[in-house]
Write a structure and sequence with these properties.
74% of the residues lie in helices and 0% in strands. With 553 residues, it is an all-alpha fold. Helix 6 packs parallel to helix 9. The two termini are 20 Å apart.
Amino acid sequence: MADRVKDTLNSLSSKIRSSHDTMGKREQPITLDDVDGIEPSPETYAAIMATQKPNPLGPGYIKLYLLAGMIFLCSTMNGFDSSLMGSINALPNYVEYFGLPKNGNASTGIVFAIFQVGQMCGALFIWMTDWYGRTWHIFFGCLGVCIGTIVTALATNLPMFIGGRFILSFFATCAHTAAPLYLVEISPAVYRGTIAGAYNTFYNVGSILATSSVYASHLHLADRGDLDWRIPLWLQMVCPGLVFLFIKFFPESPRYLIANDQHEKARDIIIKYHTNGDPNHPLVALQMKEMLGTVQGGTKASWKDILDLGVLVETRSARYRLMLNVAFSWFGQFSGNNIISYYLPSMLDGIGVTDTNTKLILNIIYAAIGWVFSIGGARLHDIVGRRKMLLGSTLGMTICLALVAAGAAGKVVYGNSAVPTMSIVFIFLFGAIFATGYTPMQPIYPAEVVSNKMRAKAMGTFKLTAGAAGFLNTFVGPIALSSIGYWFYVFFVFWDAFEMGFMYFFFVETKGMTLEELDAIFEAENPRKASIEAKKMQKRIIKEGRGQEGLKV
């Protein structure tokens, strides 16, 4: 193996040197011939990482982190809304203004669920990112969120409020579906889970901002009419407003540029953000060949592509990819998490916590815990791997929900006053486990497992599926909680156990592989097994390659 690694590295160095000489001399657009001789594979990438890994604290990476930090603000939209609605639903001024019952009814469900309806409608237009670019879709999405916020904040009746929430959710979907797609495509493979995965952790930042604003407004403005719930609604436009102002100063996705014959611009982005400005780094030639190879014989996207969904099912590997995309999209919204996020105040009522301020403080703590654990989880996905993280977290969630159900049953059936405390503890532990394993990957894994030409439309299926799952459990949630109580948690115990089995047998490992290298994995007879074997090979190459570097020193 050591000889093989050495031969691979020596051969790779000469081929890459020749490729860079060619690209430096040519004035014509870069083509596949300019990087001929380099063989893209997980082993080639691992060999480069073993000996010439770019400095993650270099100037190019720092710029990438700053760019990503602004894009992360798109993720606050969903978190802000879910916690905002869960929090203001506990405010007497809000429920009295719109004539909603304290314990919720069909109207309460519609106010929550219309967000999922807007998401599903907005998802139908994600294909436009292939037409005019990822950054333009984010731009228009953030603009629309600001408009929707104005409508809801000025609403004088329930239909106007619901209509504003539809507008808000429609355009929020445009922004926060294109945003992770953009981050997945611009991030280097070795840190993709960390950089792109950190995107969804800002869901919790949105939750903290929303709940804190509701708490402060209620504490100081509860006797000032409807200000305690209208001011938090106005604040919903702050983060998307900032992204709207700055997004067009950012570069486009290199994979979008490659697909639209702007190869030099794509190469410049790889040099600037992936190799800290080094045009001769082997990653430049490798990634250019991988990306150019995926667009050979392809055509540019146009508005006519809206009804062309054949790319999602045209081959066996495409269907397998779509299965994983849809499955994890559903799992991410239907594992018990949405019920806890939206209806935490009502759940606290059910276990004996009735003070409004106490419930709002617990909401803030729940979101803060989720943010801390999700940031750690984003990094762990690049260390431990997607499969192990998702399997372990699903097991932990199953156990927590079983104990929450047991605590709720103890209070209802036996009148035990001590068990509500246990239920709260495991509700918060559930949130921490979900945040660690699921939150970073919710929009990232569905984007990773699909090919470049599938990605825009597949992110549409991701949002449609997630919206359908969210609509089902947020609309049915209040009815189920009031009708069957703790048995609703029991249902999710069995459902999460099913998810764990599905993940074990079908989910593919994507850690540390470029998006193009995953093509060979999905062409295998058993993609799950092929991905595990590829990761084992990568580990051996990296270990032995680093050992050789140590001997040179």
